[in-house]
Amino acid sequence: MTSVGTTASIWRYPAKSMMGDEFPSLPIADGGVVGDRGWAVRDEERGGIRGAKKIGGLMRLHARYVEEPRAGAAPPAIEIALPDGEVLRSDESDANERLSRFLDHPVTLWPLQPPTDLEHYRRGAPDTDDFDAEMRQIFGREPAEPLPGFEGLPLDVLIEYESPPGSYFDAFPILVVTDRSLATLAGLAPGSDFDVRRFRPNIVVELDENDGDFPEQSWIGHSLRVGEVELEVTAACPRCVMVTRDFGDLPADRNVLRTVVREADQNLGVYANVTTPGTLSVGAAVTLS
């Protein structure tokens, strides 16, 4: 095992595409951070679970659990803070109406459903029958830019379903980013803010030393131990229009994505599966097999 650094921060996002929070420690189960993406919204106009790739206003909402989630149990209710300070709860009778009004789009809130409920996870109708145009809209690619290659991603599943059935993850349960990758991008485009919140990682690794511009990309196919938790690094994370959205105190910035596409081969961070569950804590040593 080779030491690569320490855990700088860990994050959980109770609802798909909404803001989450940083924690000093979090439990990790076979399916990822306990409670991560336990809720999502369903598009009641086009059908299907939707994230901020399609409904950008979701990123301006901040979701928190009303009680701590437990591994293997149904996700607890969440409260959702709107930018004006209004708070709604997922278990309130008018929650869907109020959320739809804020998003200016008819939606309903849903906790995770069983993986056997395939219709729940099936993709909704696209905005256009032009597949290339649909993909460019989702990924925010300009005409001269390439679409992602999607190497290592479960395309057979993701073409049919919004997320792997039984989860609201884009592809895999854990996303890891290094401080070095963020610093590289910041140096390449000093006029943009590459705040870690734009990229929605579960784990941020502070490296022991400078090891290339985007060092986590070399971890694909290896095992990563983060304290007592062991991960299998599976694929690069191709970035989409979400990183350009405005939310919290961050402004909209299309140059963030332009820089990732041009300088980082379209990717930032790596996806991983959990092979050994445990408790993840800030300051834990990170080693690579």
Core attributes:
single chain; 289 residues; alpha+beta; M1 Pyruvate Kinase, Domain 3; 7-stranded mixed β-barrel; 3-stranded antiparallel beta sheet; 6 helices; 17 strands; 16% helix; globular
Helix-strand blueprint:
Layout: E1 2-12, E2 21-23, E3 25-29, E4 32-33, E5 39-43, E6 49-50, E7 62-65, E8 78-81, E9 87-89, H1 95-103, E10 107-111, H2 118-121, H3 131-139, H4 155-158, E11 174-178, H5 179-188, E12 203-207, E13 223-226, E14 229-238, H6 254-263, E15 267-276, E16 278-281, E17 285-288
Parallel strand pairs: 11-12
Antiparallel strand pairs: 1-2, 1-12, 1-17, 3-4, 3-16, 5-6, 5-10, 7-8, 8-9, 11-15, 13-14, 13-17, 14-15
Short description:
By secondary structure, this protein is an alpha+beta fold. Helices cover 16% and strands 30% of the residues. The protein has one domain: Beta Barrel (M1 Pyruvate Kinase, Domain 3).
Description:
This protein is of the alpha+beta class and 289 residues long. The protein has one domain: M1 Pyruvate Kinase, Domain 3, CATH 2.40.33.20. Helix content is 16%, strand content 30%. It has six helices and 17 strands. The strands form four sheets. A seven-stranded mixed beta barrel has the order 1-12-11-15-14-13-17. Helix 5 (179-188) links the parallel strand 11 and strand 12. The termini are close together. The model has no long low-confidence stretch (mean pLDDT 97).
